[in-house]
Amino acid sequence: KNQVEQSPQSLIILEGKNCTLQCNYTVSPFSNLRWYKQDTGRGPVSLTIMTFSENTKSNGRYTATLDADTKQSSLHITASQLSDSASYICVVSGSSNTGKLIFGQGTTLQVKP
Amino acid sequence: ETGVTQTPRHLVMGMTNKKSLKCEQHLGHNAMYWYKQSAKKPLELMFVYSLEERVENNSVPSRFSPECPNSSHLFLHLHTLQPEDSALYLCASSQDGLGVGFDGYTFGSGTRLTVV
Fold this sequence. Notes:
B: mainly beta; 7-stranded mixed beta sheet; 0% helix
């Protein structure tokens, strides 16, 4: 069964600290993996998209890694800011005719001053 | 704004009401989607339209009825909903019909629906 599991479910950190969010998936065959940021009451916004051959990709203070062998990805946030408070969703796309996206349940991050 | 606009942003309706959600995309994309997002659960795909034809209907109850009159507009007609239908309803669009393309999805801001 194609699944995407994220951990932790929620996380609280102090402003300025770093944190790492985890994503494990069982989707096969694999096409690409995306991380989205979703602010409260808003739609998800794409942060990074990685294909099978990419190990790491950065977008400002956000760095995503991908290990296609172990089927794991992480999103590292450096020098967190209050505006980083949001849900972070890992989404995996399989190489199939239906092209379905498999969504994780998200990690809720709260950055406190 | 992301280029995908949803209205209304908030909606409260009774179980006997009929209402419609609207989505409009200004990105020239070929595919549009409806998703349901409930608290603490992953996004659930409801409907997919590619080039104005419905290509997927994920066992959604008939009280939800989609309509795609053209490639830029998507509606979700609601009638006789249940309280458990309360959720954030997200519209998305993509360039290709499957949403797996490298350019990915663009989501709207959603409609927060409360059924009382």
